[in-house]
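About this split. The held-out portion is used to measure sequence recovery: a designer receives only the structure tokens and must propose an amino acid at every position. Recovery is the fraction of positions where the proposal matches the reference. Here is one held-out target exactly as it appears in the evaluation file.
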């Protein structure tokens, strides 16, 4: 409607597909929250997120960080989700992806990495990490969604441990206890699972 267009113009919200679908404008919302605020302007979306959190509804931390503008380079302006805010979020995502890629299982002969092999259900695989990814001052959290047989995490733990970080934590969202994956993990590993089946 014309009224919505005028308000968006006043708030300097660009609804073009390029700006709207840019990774810096990406957030994680449950379907109920997403449907509840539809195409509202940024301050109303922000209020909706705060309201859902105060009512005990789970909102991912990454989503809260977006609506509270907790990224380096974000403006202090709580009326607009500006280009600079999108760029700050975009840069944060790229830094997170870069950190993740340093430990993602790769298939390369790169001399800048160290490797560990591990057994899978149907053969062997290799995980590798850049030699400079972890320093002795680092505290490392190794996270996976599910602890099943434990082979990948055991290999990741040994690989990270060989780089002598200050501390290593391992956590999972779900542990499938019938598969006894915890027994495969080193005895000195500090392991946490949110849910055990």
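Reference sequence for scoring:
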């Amino acid at each position: 409607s014309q009224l919505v267009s005028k308000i968006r113009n006043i708030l300097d919200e660009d609804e073009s597909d390029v700006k709207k679908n840019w990774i810096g404008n990406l957030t994680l919302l449950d379907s109920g929250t997403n449907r509840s605020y539809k195409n509202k302007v940024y301050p109303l979306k922000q209020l909706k997120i705060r309201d859902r959190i105060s009512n005990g509804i789970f909102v991912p931390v990454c989503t809260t960080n977006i609506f509270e503008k907790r990224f380096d380079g974000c403006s202090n302006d709580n009326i607009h989700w500006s280009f600079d805010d999108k760029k700050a979020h975009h840069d944060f995502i790229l830094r997170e992806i870069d950190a993740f890629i340093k430990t993602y299982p790769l298939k390369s002969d790169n001399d800048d990495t160290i490797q560990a092999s591990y057994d899978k259900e149907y053969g062997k695989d290799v995980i590798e990490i850049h030699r400079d990814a972890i320093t002795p001052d680092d505290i490392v959290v190794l996270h996976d969604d599910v602890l099943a047989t434990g082979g990948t995490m055991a290999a990741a733990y040994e690989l990270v441990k060989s780089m002598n970080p200050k501390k290593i934590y391992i956590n999972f969202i779900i542990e499938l206890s019938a598969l006894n994956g915890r027994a495969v993990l080193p005895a000195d590993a500090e392991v946490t699972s949110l849910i055990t089946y």
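Annotator remark: The mean pLDDT is 80.
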